Amino acid sequence: MTDDASTPTTPATPAPESITTIACVGIGTIGGGWAAYFLARGYRVQAWDPSPEAGNRVRRLIDAAWPALTQLGLSENADPENISVHTDLAEALDGAQFVQESAPEVLEMKQQLLADIDAHAADGVVIASSTSGYSMTEMAVQAANPERLVVGHPFNPPYLIPLVEVVGGEATDPAAVQWASQWYEHLGKSVITMDREVPGFIANRLQEALWREALHMVDNGEATVEQIDRSITDGPGLRWPLQGPMLTFHLAGGPGGMAHMLDHFGPSLKSPWTRLEAPELTDELRESVVAGCDEEAAGRSVPDLVAERDRAIIAVRQVIDQLRRDAA
Amino acid sequence: MTDDASTPTTPATPAPESITTIACVGIGTIGGGWAAYFLARGYRVQAWDPSPEAGNRVRRLIDAAWPALTQLGLSENADPENISVHTDLAEALDGAQFVQESAPEVLEMKQQLLADIDAHAADGVVIASSTSGYSMTEMAVQAANPERLVVGHPFNPPYLIPLVEVVGGEATDPAAVQWASQWYEHLGKSVITMDREVPGFIANRLQEALWREALHMVDNGEATVEQIDRSITDGPGLRWPLQGPMLTFHLAGGPGGMAHMLDHFGPSLKSPWTRLEAPELTDELRESVVAGCDEEAAGRSVPDLVAERDRAIIAVRQVIDQLRRDAA
């Protein structure tokens, strides 16, 4: 599109680096956690919440989070007091250049609230929802301008866990998805941009599979709650902060990596090691997984990755052991 | 049973603290990792492996692991050279007071090897298998004395990951299971003793559910390998070294903990957030999970656990960030 003055122009979405003021709509555990994070990054926060308790609650949450945020490093202008709490939505949205909605997971509430936010937010402002379960396609149905509505799904606590999953609905402008991804990256987040809606996004699907298998085991008396937790904290959980499940199995294949692992252990996908049926290990799936691991490894050999893993496990164990001693 | 001299007595299993010599049967990645761990704990290791390469390979593995083991703290008498490698099984088992079998995951090979070990090991010596997939009931069929055969399933690398899952087969003497659990605890391991055989034990079932869901997502083009790994490393993987999946959801419930979480988010078990169907959330299952979390929390309130979690996430993030900077 040219800069022709006769062309109707879309109102400009502010450049991420020009943003100073953010609206947090809903300030429970997740919304309040976002508010703490935005404050630590030096932004002004205007919060909306219908509860008369919300102001005190978010104050306590920010005070509790601030030492952690300080330890991780505050941005210039970071000020835990730079927040106002409103019961009037229009007031909270006045002047906001980005909106993070974190209302309870009730579809009708989200639909109404996103429509109200859309009605009050300045033109061009992108509106993100923290929803962990709904698609933007189903949440955006009442909004007049669904093209600027995106999912920006954080992990609890949003002020410490870097991951944010970004995805639009059917009516979302791809430019809004791209803008939101750039904005969260500018904020210092680890962003995963999905090109289509999948129920539960990515991390929650993985977590949910594990959680459901755990519930089955408790239900059948196969394991206790404590055994399930310890099987993760003292087992694979020590590897996962550095290397995810894919790279973990890349290393399990020895020097031959994921290719060897799939060729050798592929048959175990037929084993009844979980209630979840595995997909057929086609040549195409094998190639996707092997190529993806090679790409992630980025030239590092399996022994290189083993050495990195070992350093990480030692360091993580020392950190956790020390924290447990301190707590005892 | 009384100490009546006329009663046939079972040969005594050595007390864990009296053990000095261990046989490692099979010294690939897992068996060699066990050997490194036993050496670091001050034991004499007698290894058996049919491969002429095995001696050099295990030497390289021990040399690579030793700095890590040194950093975690060596026991008195720890000596990386205190190992002999044999191609004759009887030689490797001569004088061994405990046997750790880590042969390839081929059922017929395990059956034959466990029978051979049983034939050569001194009476009363407990024999553990590192198998990640077979039950002792199916592996023990050829052994003359199946009562002393147990599964002692480690996680890779066995010299750094504390978890060991212990379970017997149908013919295993419960005393051997109990002895193996005490022995691994004496060694400094985090032991989970299962009272019945479940395919894949506990941690692998949880890991396998996650892995299969990940394969489905790659297969359907819903996520890339890199996105799957990052969704864990930068997301829930940062919480799991301190708090497992159960305690994680205990905290997701706010001050009401797991009880509130199940009452509030129970319906999401019906959501298509993974291909794995959840069990019915009966009152009984709800009570088991809530009681298990209360027991694990051991008097710590949800805010206490949140504070512990936040300290752990910060420390783990700092450790991982530093390792990534060092590697770059």
TrEMBL record, chains A, B:
GO terms for molecular function: carnitine 3-dehydrogenase activity. Belongs to the 3-hydroxyacyl-CoA dehydrogenase family. Keywords: Oxidoreductase. The lineage of its organism: Bacteria, Bacillati, Actinomycetota, Actinomycetes, Micrococcales. Residues 21-196 form the 3-hydroxyacyl-CoA dehydrogenase NAD binding domain. InterPro entries: 3-OHacyl-CoA_DH_NAD-bd, 3HC_DH_C, 6-PGluconate_DH-like_C_sf, 6PGD_dom2, NAD(P)-bd_dom_sf. It comes from the Bacteria. This is Carnitine 3-dehydrogenase. It is an enzyme of class 1 (oxidoreductase). It comes from Brachybacterium sacelli. Its EC number is 1.1.1.108.
